[in-house]
């Protein structure tokens, strides 16, 4: 029947699904081309047609909106651009020829109300970039009018805030962005899911991985099945309820997967549905071939619970191998009881730093505590949900006990050394950085590492342990006692103003207060660069340049720096008034409370100062790697080697360099994915998760399709006290802060010291990731703005423009009003 609607000009705009010309990804996008090849090969694929990329470009040209789209992207923030461009697509109907071609193709599928799915097929996917879930799909579309509306909505999803930011990060020009669409008949499946022809978590060549659910959306009983490739037999099965696929069904599906893999000559991810007793292919996507990447994923070792609630602020992104090797070294020095081989509570999940709550719980249980020795004293997000790992108590005590005892004794002794360390650390790190830069030979650089840089790093780690382990002076220990005497509001005021005895501000606010002092001529530019040029949003990643490496830094002083001083002066006045009220109403308690507050201030100041000096020491390590790259001619390749392999290369062994290309690909592959959930339960495959359009961003629970919370309240952890109502501003990076308007509520995945200047314009701060000791909590408390941390999924559930009530005292966020999009307004009308 296709001949009834196809003409030469129509074939430029619309193609039958299995047309030989549709095997061209440049014409119909990667997803569409893969489906065309699959259908041409004779596998079962639902009937449908392609709306080509040329159709998209023709629509944009006929509507005259191409220039407006690019102007919106250039001049507006990603969220505003998404809204403005969405309105353009909603406003302009396709021309007569284009709409007619789509209507004729649709009529060839069935009756006037034939139900179809409308899915994006982006050109970017040709390069193997992980665009899964960034574009819109419309399911259950009936009628040609609804179809044309759905096509425009899917086209508009090419310009969502997430897609805009992703293209910029991936180096794709917005001018080149275009989108094809696949329209297919909807099935009524008895089961649906995904099949990986090579189990992606272990990349074991002998197995396939099947995710199956009772419906295509994955909202009913689900299971995960491992199938032997050679025999088709079920090797393992994990289910959340009744069995979805029988062993025979799984074997039949595996055979389909092998046919798809043979067709494309590489490992594949197949989205499938079982309809009328047989499997159908809904989508086929390549998986990176074996051997061209590594697996940086400790979650595949067992069914443990992982959290980045406390680590996400430290390392907010995927780490290079060099950085991860340094992180292990620093953790061993600063938290030795959590770094015992076989009982480590830290690891990488998809290249990101996570904490193993199951091992942590097992260690705590062995010692009869709620938290393991030398761990953070504050509870971590998800800790109450973590079952202890099955580790024998005797083995835990034998391995961890002596380490914990030595750590406790060393911590007590080292607390007396913190003040002396802080007095010398800056000069020591700066000296080591200069000596690394000037090392004349490879042998000199090796000697400098072993004799001076490594011992200094270990000292920094020991000081982190000492400064962070003063529980009696922590906020959780001091705040209740102070609040009991003076009330919640005054307690929050008295516990601000963290500073050294000489008035030096906390390292948390040091960069922004210092910038204001520089602007007023109190300190010079060189002094500011020396004191704070090591701090920045990506300060933990060794491959990232430090701000002071830019000769133009700092540039013009922002208004935020001056605003910070104004806020802090206001806070100081409020604090003096609180002290006056205390002495007036409770004269007998004033001295005792003053001692508790002074201890809290000293402990907090030291903890933040030691953290800052550790970051400065890491700058010396970065210079060591840069100089090693110069001396060996390897350049920045060395950031893709752990420290011990860098030392081997310096010593003349070139073999580690053979893995650099593979690790670069691995790093970029993980970096292409969106941030993972805060809480991960069980074995986690980040690529399968990212490809799932219905993925959750707060928690991953294996194949069980736990529903995303849609209620009006987001629970988190109390950060900085106070209650504020205001509009939301979702920010992906601190660099996007120029889109923040005064009085808006910042919503971010995670914040660190690089975000501090933005806090002066915000009315409150909300994060997905964070714990009570996070930088954001300290900064927000000092500036007097409410903060809620560790919500898990605020960036997914809130949108710029939503109105919320932030209760930093209780740790909750209440949605008062949702932003209404243009399509929603049109529906309401």
TrEMBL record:
This is Pyruvate, phosphate dikinase. It comes from Actinomadura rayongensis. It comes from the Bacteria. Residues 374-393 are annotated as: Disordered. Residues 27-238 form the Pyruvate phosphate dikinase AMP/ATP-binding domain. Residues 741-811 form the PEP-utilising enzyme mobile domain. GO terms for molecular function: ATP binding; kinase activity. SUPFAM superfamilies: Glutathione synthetase ATP-binding domain-like (SSF56059), Phosphohistidine domain (SSF52009).
């Amino acid at each position: 029947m296709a001949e009834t609607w196809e003409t030469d000009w129509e074939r430029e705009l619309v193609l039958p699904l299995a047309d030989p010309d549709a095997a061209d990804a440049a014409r119909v996008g990667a997803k569409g081309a893969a489906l065309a090849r699959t259908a041409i090969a004779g596998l079962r694929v639902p009937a449908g047609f392609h709306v080509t990329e040329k159709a998209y470009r023709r629509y944009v040209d006929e509507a005259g909106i191409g220039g407006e789209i690019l102007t919106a992207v250039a001049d507006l923030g990603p969220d505003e651009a998404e809204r403005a461009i969405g309105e353009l697509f909603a406003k302009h109907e396709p021309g007569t020829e284009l709409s007619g071609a789509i209507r004729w193709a649709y009529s060839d599928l069935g009756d006037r109300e034939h139900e179809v799915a409308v899915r994006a097929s982006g050109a970017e996917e040709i390069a193997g970039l992980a665009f899964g879930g960034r574009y819109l799909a419309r399911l259950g579309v009936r009628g040609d009018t609804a179809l044309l509306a759905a096509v425009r909505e899917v086209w508009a999803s090419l310009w969502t805030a997430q897609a805009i930011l992703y293209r910029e990060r991936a180096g794709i020009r917005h001018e080149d962005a275009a989108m094809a669409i696949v329209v297919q008949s909807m099935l009524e499946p008895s089961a649906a899911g995904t099949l990986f022809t090579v189990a992606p978590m272990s990349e074991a060549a002998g197995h396939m991985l099947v995710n199956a659910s009772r419906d295509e959306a994955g909202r009913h009983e689900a299971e995960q099945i491992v199938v032997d490739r050679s025999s088709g037999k079920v090797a393992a099965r994990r289910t959340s309820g009744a069995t979805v696929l029988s062993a025979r069904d799984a074997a039949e599906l595996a055979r389909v997967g092998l046919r798809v893999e043979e067709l494309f000559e590489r490992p594949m991810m197949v989205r499938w549905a079982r309809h009328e007793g047989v499997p159908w292919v809904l989508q086929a996507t390549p998986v990176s071939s074996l051997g061209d990447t590594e697996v940086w994923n400790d979650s595949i070792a067992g069914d443990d619970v992982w959290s980045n609630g406390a680590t996400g602020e430290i390392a907010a992104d995927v780490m290079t191998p060099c950085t991860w090797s340094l992180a292990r070294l620093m953790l061993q020095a600063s938290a030795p009881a959590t770094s015992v081989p076989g009982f480590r509570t830290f690891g990488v999940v998809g290249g990101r730093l996570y904490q193993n709550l199951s091992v942590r719980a097992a260690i705590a249980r062995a010692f009869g505590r709620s938290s393991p020795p030398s761990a953070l004293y504050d509870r971590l997000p998800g800790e109450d949900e973590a079952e202890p790992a099955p580790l024998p108590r005797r083995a835990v005590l034998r391995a961890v006990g002596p380490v914990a005892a030595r750590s406790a004794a060393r911590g007590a002794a080292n607390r007396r050394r913190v003040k002396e360390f802080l007095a010398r650390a800056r000069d020591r790190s700066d000296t080591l950085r200069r000596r690394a830069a000037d090392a004349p030979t490879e042998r000199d650089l090796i000697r400098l590492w072993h004799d001076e840089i490594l011992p200094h790093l270990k000292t920094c780690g020991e000081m982190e342990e000492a400064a962070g382990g003063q529980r009696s002076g922590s906020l959780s220990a001091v705040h209740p006692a102070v609040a009991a005497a003076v009330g919640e509001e005054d307690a929050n005021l008295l516990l601000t103003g963290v500073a050294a005895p000489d008035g030096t501000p906390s390292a948390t606010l040091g960069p922004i207060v210092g910038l204001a002092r520089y602007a007023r001529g109190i300190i010079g530019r060189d002094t500011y660069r020396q004191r704070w040029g090591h701090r920045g949003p990506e300060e933990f990643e060794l491959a990232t340049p430090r701000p002071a490496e830019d000769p133009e830094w700092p540039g013009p002083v922002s208004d935020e720096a001056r605003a910070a001083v104004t806020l802090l002066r206001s806070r100081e006045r409020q604090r003096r008034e609180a002290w006056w009220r205390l002495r007036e109403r409770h004269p007998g308690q004033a001295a005792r409370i003053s001692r508790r507050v002074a201890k809290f201030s000293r402990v907090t100041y030291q903890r933040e100062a030691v953290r800052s000096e550790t970051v400065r020491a890491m700058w010396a390590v970065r210079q060591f790697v840069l100089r090693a790259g110069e001396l060996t001619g390897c350049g920045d390749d060395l950031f893709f080697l752990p420290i011990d392999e860098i030392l081997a290369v310096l010593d003349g062994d070139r073999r580690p360099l053979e893995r650099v290309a593979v690790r670069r690909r691995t790093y970029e592959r993980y970096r292409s994915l969106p941030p993972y959930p805060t809480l991960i339960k069980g074995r986690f495959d980040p690529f399968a998760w990212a490809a799932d359009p219905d993925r959750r961003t707060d928690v991953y629970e294996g194949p069980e399709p736990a529903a995303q919370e849609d209620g009006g309240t987001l629970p988190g952890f109390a950060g900085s006290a106070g209650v504020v109502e205001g509009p939301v501003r979702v920010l992906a990076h601190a660099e996007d802060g120029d889109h923040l308007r005064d009085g808006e509520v910042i919503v971010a995945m995670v914040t660190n010291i690089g975000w501090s200047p933005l806090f002066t314009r915000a009315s409150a701060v909300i994060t997905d990731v964070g714990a009570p000791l996070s930088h954001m909590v300290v900064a927000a408390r000092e500036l007097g703005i409410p903060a809620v941390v560790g919500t898990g999924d605020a960036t997914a559930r809130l949108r710029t423009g939503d109105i919320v009530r932030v209760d930093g005292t209780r740790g909750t966020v209440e949605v008062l009003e949702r932003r209404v999009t243009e399509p929603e307004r049109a529906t309401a009308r």
